[in-house]
Amino acid sequence: MPLRTPPTFEWVIRGLIGDTSNMSDMLEEVHDWLDENWDPDLSVARWWELLGLAGWAAPTYPTNAYGRGVSRGDAVLVANAISEHGALNAPGGLGLLLAGPTIAEHGTPDQIERYVRDIVTGKKAWCQLFSEPGAGSDLAGLQAKAEQDGEEWMVNGQKVWTSAGHIADLGMLIARTDSTVPKHQGISYFAIEMDQPGVDVRPLREMTGRALFNEVFLTDARVADDAMISGKGNGWAVANSTLAYERSGLGAGGGSQSTSAATPGTIAGDLAKRAGDFVTARAPKKQPSPSKGETADGATTRRERSTPRLSGLADRLAKIAEQNGMIADATIRADLVRLHSLGEIGRINNLRVKGARASGATIPGMGNISKLSMSHLVRLQRDLGLRIVGANGMLHAYDAADRAAITEATGMPMLGVITELALFAQAPPIYGGTDQIQRNIIGERVLGLPKEPNNDRVTPFAELPKNV
Ligand SMILES: Cc1cc2nc3c(=O)[nH]c(=O)nc-3n(C[C@H](O)[C@H](O)[C@H](O)COP(=O)(O)OP(=O)(O)OC[C@H]3O[C@@H](n4cnc5c(N)ncnc54)[C@H](O)[C@@H]3O)c2cc1C
Predict the structure, then answer these.
(1) What are the start-end ranges of the H helices in 109-215?
(2) Could you read off the pLDDT of 171-211 as tens digits, one per residue?
(3) Of 137, 189, 247, 440, best ligand 1 pocket probe by most atoms within 8 Å of the beta carbon
(4) How far apart are CA 140 and CA 182, in angstroms?
């Protein structure tokens, strides 16, 4: 009997989760579809329409909502195949990440048609109107209220940390529609139009120098009754779906999914532009199989031989450390391997989720665990990157001209990425639910530990003490 190459861990996991030939077929289908349809001279709007309606913009969505019902890991392979082909990738943003899957899960067929179609085709951009000055971790304590006025609801209140609110056509709004019931029961979920006199969006500048998020003031803002997702008082369950998509989408382990350089929605102004202007020209290339560098019998391929020793950023940091001599420091080498390992653990966990899902099971708390893991990863990237570049790490560029000057002075083209990641590293442990809240959820809902004592599940919201 011939000797086989010893199986890698990934190969064993693939053995456990079963045949990947369906994915190979799907990737083949994507490549054929791209050969037929990608044309750099199409407008962004037209290209995204073709991509979205074919089910390639959001393959994880169910088949009745412009998706193909595949796992997140497989969707990463599809997105990477689109990029490798040299085509413009799917519209990114909170519409595709959060609003689309939430409405696909909780919306009516009419709402799926009205909202999800415009999300997968990039026609409309979305923001998430959840957090308030007094309601972040304690989101169910929110005070923005919506009162019924005929066929419409009138909304008053303030939201904060609204990422991309300044370029959003629509917002996922949660507002209080009944204060006489306990706080989780009196919340409703709406799709609100942002372009109206009652919605005032004001940018907030963060320490990276960018203004990614905003505060949003709602003053007699209007939202139609048929824009309520899942009925009055059911908003908490719908919001929890959005938060679950946020945790799993932002957590470690999704692989490095290619994202579009063009911005969706009517405000950013990219829809009428030429799609080809958003991609770097390259020769179309086919990836024959979803496996990374290994054929079914374990033999290595050309792709594996060119694979870097470490994954992603760890590999690039190692190269800088080799150039400036920091690699001689054993603690730097140990942290490089730690960074690589965290990325790999996330990737393997993602395969575990896929395997569990294939057999109809779930792994409780995995979304929370992968979000916590992402927090560790970004903190390690921050600390390790800054240690490797040393005093140069104090030079952060706030615009393109500064970036070019700093690159020239230091001879480090990666410096801007390292300082940007270091400054932004504070954000992932906060957004989508802080690290402490993830641990609370794992403790209470997964490990069955006793909840913190409080009576907010039985007391009417109007009688509870308020945060502000
Ligand atoms: C970059 C960024 C983008 C964001 N984008 C959006 C967005 O688009 N839309 C949106 O709605 N929100 C957004 N947020 C807001 C985010 O969801 C909140 O910041 C987060 O939920 C924390 O709420 P908070 O800021 O009010 O902090 P608080 O809830 O006031 O928490 C303060 C501290 O107390 C701790 N804490 C609170 N309660 C508990 C508890 N019960 N047990 C243990 N510790 C606790 C927290 O962990 C934290 O350390 C964004 C935040 C960031 C940083």
Answers:
(1) 109-111, 117-120
(2) 999 999 999 999 999 999 999 999 999 999 999 998 888 88
(3) 137
(4) 10
